[in-house]
Task: inverse folding
């Protein structure tokens, strides 16, 4: 999809404010931009008048997602409507699709906002939820949903473009990292390219409906002010929902968390990552090696997502080290070298059997 011209993008917040002005969701100006990609704009709006949510809480702000392409919008709405009736079991935490998004897991104030065990706890509940979602999405009752979701092929193409398709392009900037590994990487990438073309009618063997963009930025944690209410985790941004191998979901969240340790030296990310792995539960040999390969892809594709300025810019030696780890995870995952991983940062992944 073609991106809007800058003038067209600048006009979107004003247009949205006008459209909301006669609804209960009327917002004060200006809207705060949160993220953007071609055809998809996300803002936070401060409500002119707070509203009551379904659980009786008071909401003072909302998240507004605006599409210039209706294709992804249709599928995200379809999935969210289906998920409205999906109630996974909960103990001390409730995990649900969006109503509130409080992003604080890796904020500068994390240590003040969350007690130390909470990062692992959040990770575990994310893993539990992901396993539960994959199971729910594969059930016979969701056959009609899967039959409609297979049409979301453009999202599969975009997913491949920003992940596997980026690997060689990134590593070509560091020829020494490619030396001796070109053949194996070519073999991996050729195999994965074919998998992304696999018809969605071929379910089973680790394949099914995915969230498609499962990383920490799409999960919000809320700790209740009232003692008799459970904690809540919100999983948002379903526009990338698609058919694929479940290791893509698990590998993305594990890779996202491990990436924060490698490139930003954020120690809390490791406890969250290990919580995710523990929560997701037992893994088959295929799933564990496929997940490791995807973590490697994620560490390499970080190069295209990396901060170019500001305090989070990684030094050159850190970048090379991270890309080397990503390459090794891909190669050793393809070779099914369990001994290598048992001594790596993914040791907990290989203990989840």
Result:
């Amino acid at each position: 999809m073609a991106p809007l011209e800058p003038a067209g993008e600048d006009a979107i917040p004003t247009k949205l404010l006008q459209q909301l002005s006669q609804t209960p969701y009327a917002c004060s100006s200006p809207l705060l931009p949160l993220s953007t990609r071609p055809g998809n704009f996300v803002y936070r709006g401060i409500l002119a008048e707070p509203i009551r949510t379904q659980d009786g809480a008071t909401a003072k702000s909302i998240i507004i997602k605006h599409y210039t392409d209706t294709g992804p919008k249709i599928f995200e709405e379809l999935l969210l409507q289906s998920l409205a009736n999906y109630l996974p079991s909960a103990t001390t935490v409730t995990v649900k699709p969006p109503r509130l998004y409080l992003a604080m897991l890796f904020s500068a104030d994390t240590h003040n906002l969350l007690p130390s065990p909470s990062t692992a706890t959040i990770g575990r509940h994310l893993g539990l939820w992901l396993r539960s979602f994959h199971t729910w999405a594969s059930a016979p009752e969701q056959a009609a949903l899967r039959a409609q979701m297979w049409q979301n092929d453009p999202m599969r193409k975009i997913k491949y473009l920003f992940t596997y398709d980026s690997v060689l392009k990134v590593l070509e900037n560091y020829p020494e990292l490619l030396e001796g590994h070109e053949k194996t990487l070519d073999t991996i990438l050729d195999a994965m390219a074919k998998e992304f073309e696999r018809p969605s009618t071929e379910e089973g063997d680790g394949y099914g409906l995915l969230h498609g963009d499962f990383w920490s930025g799409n999960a919000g944690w809320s700790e209740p002010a009232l003692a008799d209410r459970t904690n809540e985790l919100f999983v948002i941004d379903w526009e990338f929902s698609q058919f694929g191998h479940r290791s893509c979901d698990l590998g993305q969240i594990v890779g996202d968390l491990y990436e924060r340790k490698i490139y930003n030296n954020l120690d809390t990310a490791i406890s969250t990552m290990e919580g995710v792995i523990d929560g997701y539960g037992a893994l088959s040999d295929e799933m564990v090696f496929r997940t490791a390969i995807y973590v490697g892809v994620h560490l390499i594709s970080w190069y295209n997502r990396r901060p170019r300025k500001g305090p989070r810019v990684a030094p050159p030696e850190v970048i090379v080290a991270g890309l080397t780890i990503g390459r090794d995870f891909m190669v050793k995952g393809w070779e099914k070298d369990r001994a290598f991983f048992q001594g790596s940062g993914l040791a907990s992944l290989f203990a989840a059997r």
Summary: The first strand starts at residue 32 and ends at 37. The chain has two domains: 1-68, 70-351. The radius of gyration is 21 Å. Residues 1-68 form one domain.
